[in-house]
Amino acid sequence: MTIDYARYTTLSITRRGPGDSVLDIQMKAANGKLPTAGHEGHRELAQIWRDVGEDDSVRCAVLRGEGLGFSGGGDLSLVQDMASDFEVRSRVWKEARDLVYNVINCDKPIVSALHGPAVGAGLVAGLLADISIAARDAKIVDGHTRLGVAAGDHAAIVWPLLCGMAKAKYYLMLCEPVSGEEAERIGLVSLAVDAADLLPRAYEVADRLAQGSQSALRWTKYALNNWLRQAGPAFDTSLALEFMGFAGPDVREGVASLRERRAPRFGPQT
Q: What is the pLDDT of residues 129-155, one digit of tens each?
């Protein structure tokens, strides 16, 4: 089955590598600076991995960002709509769930190339990728608690497995940024390289995967990802708690503080 990728509006999708078997997926920077996930972008980032899995001509995919960074997180207008509209919140919850499980269950190897800021929905796919490569000066941040919601998305399912519970709690609860170099040191990403070498190394890895035994690679991925599937209940809980937070008061203060470029002033827990 061959997929028509022209319908994607927030992703730039081209082919490269051996026999055009590597799908190059670039998240577009609509603002000219960083890719951000609005209503359409969030949906497309969840959907693309099903298409990658169904496309018989694809052997590997590379995910990267356009502009100054890998991803800039969710568009604040989307966050506000989620906070105020139950239907939007329900739809985005399903997309967030599908994004994680679609990446995990996609049988083709996925390589991510992280540069600059890496936040939000893009970071979900970036860290769940089979091979994650970061520029040494990349800035990885899970900003959920800064926004006033629980660290859901991919956090509970993969951070403790990659870098251990102590590091996961430190970075997720404090929203501390992690450089690409430090991310490699603690095991959060597969490799860290100089910024100039990022895409060449990502393409090199993708080409090697595309030329390998597809059954061996896909079955290895399937078996290893059972570690993530076992963490499914923890992920489902974290996602439910995150989206419950979008109906609470703290997210409104979180959004206001981001718009006003100030520290948030969260009230007491009720």
A: 999 999 999 999 999 999 999 998 899
Q: Could you give the CA distance from residue 82 to residue 75 in angstroms, rounded to a whole number?
A: 11
Q: Which residue type is seen at 225?
A: N
SS3 assignment, position 151? coil
CB atoms within 10 A of CB 87: 9
Q: What percent of the chain has pLDDT over 70?
A: 99
**How far apart are the C-alpha atoms of 25 and 256, rounded to whole Å?**
32
> Is 136 a domain residue?
yes
> Which CATH number do you get for residue 206?
3.90.226.10
- Distance (Å, whole) CA 196 – CA 173: 32
Say if residues 129 and 240 touch (Cβ distance below 8 Å): no
Q: Give the Cβ contact number of residue 249 at 10 Å.
A: 13
pLDDT at residue 269 is higher than 80: no
Q: At what angle do helices 155-163 and 232-245 cross, to 10 degrees?
A: 130
Tokens of 35: 């890719």
Run of H or E residues at 117: strand 117-119
Question: Are 114 and 133 spatial neighbours (Cβ–Cβ below 8 Å)?
Answer: yes
Contact, 165 vs 156, CB < 8 A?
no
| Distances in whole angstroms, Cα of residue 134 to Cα of each of 23, 112, 129, 181 | 19, 8, 12, 8
Q: How many domains does the chain have?
A: 1
Q: Helix, strand, coil shares of the chain as percentages rounded to 5? A: 55, 15, 30
Give the Cα separation of 106 and 120 in Å (integer).
20
Q: In this structure, what token pair is assigned to residue 154? A: 């991919």
Residue 267 lies in a domain: no
Assessment of whether the complete model's pTM goes beyond 0.85: yes
